[in-house]
Design brief:
The structure holds 2 protein chains of 2 kinds. Chain A is α/β, with parallel strands linked by helices. Chain A has 11 helices and 10 strands. In chain A, strands 1, 2, 4, 5, 6, 7, 8 and 9 form an 8-stranded mixed beta sheet that branches. The N and C termini of chain B lie far apart (about 125 Å). The chains are: A alpha/beta, B alpha/beta.
Chain lengths: ~300, ~350
């Protein structure tokens, strides 16, 4: 029937009809063509690593990076870091999430004030770590309570319920420490100018020195990192999407919501991967702890 | 339905099924599932991550067949001596229902039980207020041990020097923080301790402060000892006597951070100084060869002859003033011969 109708049209009408159809098709296709020409080549995700690291922040961070990997429009990740570290297991979880992401796309970490201890652990697998000249990075070590024997307590079913044997407490902290140092060398061994012993000394390095000794790769901020990740991903033009850290807080690491010091949520007997200044802030003088104990050195010769 | 209608319906069904089928098959073929990039986890595995263990166990044995000796042991005040001791002060807070961790003397438990098992007598000395003048305690003693030299008063130090001059054996454990008092006590024998603490990040017993030390020579203190573990050690040097133990070469001193093989124990005649008291603690006494070292220490303490010069009733060749406690309440009540203590 269509053919019969078509044949009834004059040539001019046929041309007009074809033109109409072409215009309609063009109108439909134009936005796509426009979008293709105008839109960026891809998207860079900026994911925040902010504040103390605990299971909540690690959960959110892992979730955000999973989302980034599954989102086909995202081609690269910048980690916007300002963290003094936190719980060892949570830091390791975040480390693993970053490593998984670097397997799929370029990842650069840019450290603001601090990427220390667990915060440094987290960014280790990034392709590169950028710092400002005064960013604090490193602190590859464990802070924890002094090994102490515990007394008898019928309330517990076994001695280790009252507290670990001092030998076990040392071994526990050593396990975390050893794995941390190994992770540093696993990820950055080829770039480090430091020996294993120097890394294990747990010094916090400021940015410029960190670049010099290989704890970091270059001086730069999040802007530099975004541009460089986009270049690595082969994007001429790109959009930026930011994933904020909403669960992180100082709580549990010495700061309450008002920013004042509190040690209410810190267990000074648990090994932590946190920067020394935060540890001292949070835990205070060890003589303030329950079962107070004087400094091992007796205050001399530190 | 007419033939034409059936044809149209059939065409629709066939076209629909074909389209859905092709698209579904295509999707399944093209879709390779949700990807999970693999990560390197080798260094988290037990064979790489578990810390080395130091051998534990053995017995504390004495070789000496000396007759009964009296050993006075000074462990100092609970709160000031050792972090561990503070536990006792707060024992009630820990809701211990059937006992406590122990008094300050627990930190030398393995040594005292060894001495007692071998027929020797042990007397604990806390301070002059609790136990009277040290001189009095030392009168009948053959040996003296202090794990808290920094808590000895001037009068106690004088009494100790007099005791050593008379041939009494003295063992000082010089934990970090006590260098001044150790140097004061040891200077006549050419032994001194340095400020600061030792640590080793390369090879240690699961903590940078837990360093290994090995015998330097065949000092009686270190016979049959191969390695001991010191949980927190200070440098102990000697100019006249013998170095008894040194650390591994990667050990560093906290003040200078220089790596060296540091001397941590010295021995000169009747005086021995070990730069750590932790090896005597029950939790550490069987680590590596600490048990052998404790046995040797016990032998050292009961071997030798003490003259009775230092007894309170005997004339002394040292300045009698030095016997009078020169500080603390009651010092003025002490008679020069020390025989009448008036509290």
């Amino acid at each position: 029937m269509t053919v019969r109708l078509w044949k009834r049209l004059t040539r001019r009408q046929q041309v007009a009809a074809v033109a109409l159809v072409a215009i309609a098709a063009g109108a439909l296709a134009a936005p796509q063509v426009y979008a293709y020409a105008d839109d960026s080549d891809g998207t860079i995700a900026v994911v925040e690593v902010d504040g103390g690291i605990d299971s909540d922040s690690a959960q959110e961070f892992e979730e955000q990076l999973r989302e980034v990997r599954q989102n086909e429009s995202i081609d690269g990740v910048v980690l916007d870091v300002d963290s003094p570290g936190g719980r060892p297991a949570s830091s390791e979880r975040m480390y693993t999430a970053v490593e998984r992401t670097t397997a799929e796309m370029p990842v650069i970490a840019a450290v603001d004030s601090m990427g220390a201890s667990g915060g440094y652990y987290t960014v280790l697998p990034a392709d590169e770590i950028y710092v400002t000249s005064s960013s604090a990075v490193g602190s590859v070590g464990v802070a924890g309570g002094e090994p102490m024997p515990s007394g008898p307590d019928e309330g517990d079913s076994a001695p280790d319920k009252g507290g670990p044997h001092p030998d076990d407490q040392r071994a526990n902290a050593q396990l975390i420490q050893q794995t941390f140092v190994e992770s540093v060398f696993e990820q950055r061994g080829d770039r480090l100018e430091l020996t294993r012993e120097e890394v294990a000394h747990a010094r916090t390095y400021y940015g410029t020195e960190a670049v010099d000794n290989g704890m970091a790769d270059g001086i730069g901020t999040v802007d530099d990192a975004i541009h460089d990740v986009a270049t690595d991903a082969g994007l001429d033009s790109y959009d930026v999407v930011t994933y904020n850290a909403t669960t992180s807080s100082g709580l549990g690491f010495g700061l309450d919501e008002h920013g004042s010091n509190t040690s209410a949520n810190v267990n000074p007997y648990q090994p932590q991967l946190i920067a020394p200044e935060v540890w001292h802030d949070a835990v205070g003088d060890s003589s303030d702890w329950p079962n107070a104990q004087p400094a091992a050195d007796g205050g001399e010769g530190q | 339905m007419s033939g034409h209608g059936r044809l149209l319906a059939a065409t629709f069904v066939v076209a629909f099924v074909l389209t859905v089928g092709l698209v579904s098959v295509g999707t399944v073929v093209v879709d390779d599932g949700t990807e999970q990039p693999t990560v390197e986890r080798e260094h988290f595995q037990p064979e790489h991550a578990l810390p080395d263990t130091t051998p534990d166990g053995g017995e504390i044995a004495m070789d000496s067949s000396e007759p009964a000796n009296d050993v006075v042991i000074h462990t100092g005040d609970a709160m000031a001596v050792d972090p561990m001791q503070s536990l006792l002060a707060d024992g009630a807070d820990r809701e211990l229902s059937t006992g406590s961790v122990g008094g300050p003397e627990r930190s030398v438990g393995p040594l005292t039980t060894t001495l007692v098992e071998n027929g020797h007598a042990v007397e604990f000395y806390a301070d002059e207020f609790e136990d009277g003048p040290l001189q009095q305690s030392l009168a009948d003693a053959d040996a003296f041990v202090t794990t808290a030299p920094d808590q000895l008063t001037n009068a106690e130090q004088d009494a100790l020097e007099e005791f050593a001059d008379a041939g009494g054996r003295v063992l000082i454990t010089a934990d970090p923080g006590s260098s001044a008092s150790v140097t004061e006590l040891g200077s006549t024998a050419g032994i001194h301790a340095e400020p600061g603490y030792l640590y080793n990040l390369v090879e240690n017993d699961n903590n940078y402060l837990s360093i290994y030390a090995e015998p330097e020579d065949r000092s009686p203190l270190t016979a049959d000892v191969e390695t001991v573990v010191l949980r927190s050690a200070a440098v102990v040097e000697t100019t006249k006597g013998e170095r008894a133990m040194t650390t591994a070469a990667e050990t560093r001193l906290s003040t200078t951070r220089e790596a060296d093989a540091y001397s941590v124990a010295a021995h000169d005649g009747d005086l021995a100084v070990i730069g750590d008291s932790s090896f005597l603690e029950p939790e550490n006494a069987y680590r590596a060869d600490n048990n052998v070292l404790i046995g040797n220490v016990a032998d050292f303490l009961v071997t030798g002859e003490k003259t009775d010069q230092s007894g309170p009733d005997e004339p002394s060749d040292v300045d009698p003033d030095s016997q009078v406690p020169d500080d603390g309440p009651g010092a003025a009540d002490q008679l020069p011969d020390g025989s009448d203590w008036l509290p």
